[in-house]
């Protein structure tokens, strides 16, 4: 059972991916962390504008060292979206994602191009979305727990910017696959989103 979950920033796809994988006993890969790690590596050496440096960082990526805690900042999300627009960076990360997806029991992968590029033959594809305002509110709540200076307006501006960059890039843009089921979580809490996603998965499973 291979489950592909795509959607824009803070749509809840990561939380859903984790919950669904836990429920079904499958491994889960948050592919955003791969691009975040490449972005973070470039920021660390002051070379975010250097395409070759980002391609080298993608080739050198060690999945066992990915630390979600340090990678989930706004600055790294923005850097991830910059490096993710480069076709050679994306190409360097394809094999790793497909190997993960090829586990005999299946897997859950979430990202921007899982249903369209990485796993076009997934058993079930979900495209999770919510309005920019709802997504900004969720991300703001996460951030303000750690940062008393977090601003909702800044988070919303970041979401608009990242949506535009991720959707308009030439390389594997954020796109709903034709055969993906749309799940709009704007009016749904975590439990309701999980129940709705699980119903879609169970239906696809037959
Ligand atoms: O958690 P959030 O939705 O904010 O972002 P993420 O899933 O961690 O992804 C960070 C950035 O990586 C995105 O804005 C995309 O530009 C890029 N990304 C991508 O291009 N393809 C993927 N499969 C996953 C992430």
TrEMBL record:
The keyword Ribonucleoprotein does not apply. The keyword Zinc does not apply. This is Cytidylate kinase. Its EC number is 2.7.4.25. Belongs to the cytidylate kinase family. Type 1 subfamily. It is found in: Cytoplasm. SUPFAM superfamilies: P-loop containing nucleoside triphosphate hydrolases. ATP binds at residues 7-15. GO terms for cellular component: cytoplasm. GO terms for biological process: pyrimidine nucleotide metabolic process. GO terms for molecular function: ATP binding; dCMP kinase activity. It catalyses: dCMP + ATP = dCDP + ADP; CMP + ATP = CDP + ADP. Its main location: cytoplasm. Residues 3-201 form the Cytidylate kinase domain. It comes from Azorhizobium oxalatiphilum. NCBIfam families: cmk. InterPro entries: Cytidylate_kin, Cytidylate_kinase_dom, P-loop_NTPase. Keywords: ATP-binding, Cytoplasm, Kinase, Nucleotide-binding, Transferase.
């Amino acid at each position: 059972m291979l489950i592909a979950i795509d959607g824009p920033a803070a749509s809840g796809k990561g939380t859903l991916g984790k919950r669904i994988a836990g429920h079904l006993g499958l491994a889960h890969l948050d592919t955003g962390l791969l691009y975040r790690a490449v972005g973070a590596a470039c920021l660390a050496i002051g070379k975010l504008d250097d395409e070759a440096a980002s391609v080298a960082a993608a080739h050198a990526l060690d999945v066992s060292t990915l630390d979600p805690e340090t990678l989930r900042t706004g600055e790294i999300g923005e850097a991830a979206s910059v490096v993710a627009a480069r076709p050679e960076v994306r190409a360097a990360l394809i094999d790793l994602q497909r190997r993960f997806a090829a586990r005999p029991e299946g897997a859950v992968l979430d990202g921007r191009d899982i249903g369209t590029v990485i796993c076009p033959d997934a058993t079930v594809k979900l495209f999770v979305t919510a309005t920019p305002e709802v997504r900004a509110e969720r991300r703001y709540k996460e951030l303000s727990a750690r940062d008393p200076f977090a601003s909702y307006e800044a988070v919303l501006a970041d979401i608009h910017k990242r949506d535009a960059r991720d959707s308009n890039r030439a390389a594997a843009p954020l796109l709903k696959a034709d055969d993906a089921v749309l799940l709009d979580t704007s009016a749904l809490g975590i439990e309701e989103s999980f129940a709705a996603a699980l119903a879609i998965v169970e239906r696809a499973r037959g």
